[in-house]
Amino acid sequence: MEFGNRESTGRSETEKPATLDGRHVSRLVIEDVLDWLDDSYDLRYGGFGHQSKSLDPFSLQLLLWSGVWGFENRSSLAVHTLRTAYASEIRDRIEDGFFHYAENRDWSRPYTQKLLSDNAWLVQCFLVANAVSGLSEFATAAWETAGYLDTVLWLTDRAFYGCAQEPDDDYYGEDVEGRRRRSSPPVDRTVHCDSNALAACSKLLLAWHTGDARHADRALMVLDRLLEYMVDATGACTHLWVDGQKPQGAGHLSDYALISLALAEAYQYSQDSKYLEAMLSVLGYCEKNLRADDGTFHDVTYVDETHREGLLENPRAQYNALLSISFATAGSLTGRRSLAETSVNILEGLGALAGKSPAVAVATGVALRPVSVIYRPESADLGVWAKTRFLPGLVLRYDDEGRGVTVSSEGYSLKPVSTRAQLLEQLVKVYSLQRHIDHLELRERPTMTTHGT
Fold it and tell me: Model's pTM, two decimal places?
């Protein structure tokens, strides 16, 4: 299927396109892939297609925020998928956590491996679903899934997360009493840079949501350990660390994309400049060593520390999309125009590929997140309130000399505000949320008792 070849979107010519710095990836491409997701949607069980299924975070977040980006609002598809999957066999209802995929369309017969990456992504998807829908069940799902990470995958002696819990159909087929008579499936103690960074990012988002600093403490501990052992002073990442060995393997594009996003969240949460400096080093390494001619970044793999195996033929769209967000975020945090330009170049490179593949188009849609900046001096409550709306691309930037809270985006800055109602009005202007104002109503987040960390 080729996306983006229709002559008209049927939208008004005056509607604002999804843009960054005046340039844009064709709206037709994103509208077509949203139509494609709609057409392939399983109306009965949720998800896409009628065979084996998994919970793809890029598709889910694209759907959840489709209305915010100015496209037809299809968030209900993602909400239905997450609710159905949560109640199905793909979720371990006894010990929490989600299995890797299900063989049947009704989410039954799961492949019973639980991956750190899958579950860390789902924490974020549930938080966004809670923000979009206002349904408290998604906040509970995020909390439970994060609890699985902390109670099962956490390696106390290493202060990292293990990459997976091994599959065991017999064990997971038992009830509570049956499981007590068995040994639980072992955790793979291999530490992956990318999935640990992703877990740290998810824990930071949960800390914003719940106000529970223990989630942030765990996240910052993981990031500090990654910076000490798996990211060097030049920003180069090491991909994995097998238990009992030294960290090994040159960083994958996923490592650079996910740790840069996690460092950005760590800086916004802690205001500790070491996280921003580390983020800039990681992005600088990417620009120097991984840039492709089309503006995107290569994924490089190595056989060992000295021998280059080669560049993957096609850039990994998902991680290029995340790197675009990282560069845009870094540009907002520092005011450096060159970083925002790199974000634009990635988008344009992805846009050239998006018409050829639904996966690339989905990733491109995720990257079309407008970056707004909330200037937060002493007004912590307003800044945190804005952050917990989980709007795509919203960045907190601290200004010791400012007053109140200011919203700015791509060349313009709105007047400082001092109340939630005023801030909400400005967010509506920035995100064009007039038709979806109910997603940001002035409600308080429920206070939750979280798993101990």
Answer: 0.88
- As to burial, measured by CB atoms within 10 angstroms (0-12 exposed, 13-18 middle, 19+ buried), residue 435 is exposed
Q: Give Dmax (Cα) for the chain.
A: 66
- In order of their start, the domains of the chain are 27-369 (1.50.10.10), 372-444 (no CATH)
Q: How many CB atoms lie within 10 A of CB 180?
A: 9
Q: What is the chain's pLDDT, residue by residue, as a tens digit (453 residues)?
A: 555 555 433 333 333 433 333 344 556 777 888 898 999 999 999 999 888 999 999 899 989 988 877 788 899 999 999 999 999 999 999 999 999 999 999 999 999 999 999 999 999 999 999 999 999 999 999 999 999 999 999 999 999 999 999 999 999 999 999 999 999 999 999 999 999 999 999 999 999 999 999 999 999 999 999 999 999 999 999 999 999 999 998 899 999 999 999 999 999 999 999 999 999 999 999 999 999 888 889 886 544 444 344 444 455 788 998 999 999 899 889 989 899 889 888 888 887 777 767 777 777 777 766 567 776 656 778 888 888 888 877 888 877 766 678 887 765 677 888 888 888 888 877 776 433 333 334 333 333 333 333
CA-based nearest residue to 41, from 70, 93, 1, 84: 84
Q: Of 293, 297, 295, 298, whose CA–CA distance to 311 is shortest?
A: 298
Read out DSSP for 240-267?
Answer: EE-TTS--EEEPPHHHHHHHHHHHHHHH
